[in-house]
Amino acid sequence: MAAIFVTHLLSSHPISGRIPIHFIKPTNTFQVTGPVQRFARQIASHGYIVAAPSSYHEFTGPEALAYDGPGTDAGNAWKIEKKLSAYDEDATLSVDLLKSMETCNGRIGATGMCLGGHLAFRCAFDKRIRAAVCYFATDIHSQTLGKGKNDDSIKRVKDISGELIMVRFFTSTMSCWHC
């Protein structure tokens, strides 16, 4: 079972004027790293609750992989060794966790960068996800996520009932620095 890291304000009272939304923040190729934690804390600082499932619990512990050659190699190998159904199960478990919280009003969104952007897109297949914001979704264009490198993400876009924002930079010099 995935380790799901939860980030929220210590106050039990929502920030005045905010509509409480819970977020699933899928992790990137390196799992829950410092940048992922900072992004989750930034979202939580606005009064939201963030659940970030570890990406590779089938292969290793929930600890972040190092931003080095071996960490990159492990993350890139595991992202295509893990079954698509396992990625989707991690998302379902995260939604279930958020919905089990007393403070959950059912308004759940997903966001992520790089691998997390692709996984946020896949989170949106769950009808309980109201919106997804996907930043530079790794491998979504090549359909090479998961075991067999033959994902169905683009083919399933019709299964998304919530709002969807895709953010991608297209320049010859811009790439996701850690993917």
Which H/E pattern describes the elements?
A: EEHEHHEHEE
User: Which architecture per CATH?
Assistant: 3-Layer(aba) Sandwich
Highest-level CATH class: Alpha Beta
What count of helical segments does DSSP give?
A: 4
User: What is the CA-CA span between the terminal residues?
Assistant: 25 Å
Biggest sheet layout: 6 strands, mixed
What is the radius of gyration computed over CA atoms, rounded to a whole number of angstroms?
Answer: 16 Å
Q: What's the shape?
A: globular
CATH superfamily: Alpha/Beta hydrolase fold, catalytic domain
Mean pLDDT: 85
Structural class: alpha/beta
Task: Please indicate the count of domains.
Answer: 1
CATH fold naming: Rossmann fold
> What proportion strand?
15-25%
Oligomer: single chain
Number of strands: 6
> What spatial order of strands do you see in the largest sheet?
1-3-2-4-5-6
Describe the structure.
This protein has a single domain (4-9, 19-167), classed as 3-Layer(aba) Sandwich (Rossmann fold), CATH 3.40.50.1820. The longest helix has 17 residues, at 84-100. It is of the alpha/beta class. 28% of the residues lie in helices and 17% in strands. It has helices at 34-44, 69-81, 84-100, 115-123; strands at 4-7, 22-24, 49-53, 108-113, 129-135, 163-167. It contains four helices and six strands. The radius of gyration is 16 Å and the shape is globular. The protein starts with a strand and ends in a 12-residue tail after the last strand. It has a six-stranded mixed beta sheet. Residues 15-20 have low confidence and may be disordered.
